[in-house]
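Many introductory courses stop at the sequence. We go one step further.
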Amino acid sequence: MTTPTPTSPAHFDYPAAARDAGISSADLARLIQLFERDYPSDLMLRELHILRACESIRAGRATLTTILAPRDSRVA
């Protein structure tokens, strides 16, 4: 069973990191959905990965496109 992602983060301020990275709310919702599938029952780990994805995009180490790419085409 998936633990729902709350509207206000429980552990990490990833919405601020998303804003800093220029990620739209629609794209942030896509990131949240991705990590909900990867970590359905661990909210803290999910939020941490969302935060790290946003920070990587902001720093230029990753792009939204690469992070959201289908698993079989993602680089390990």
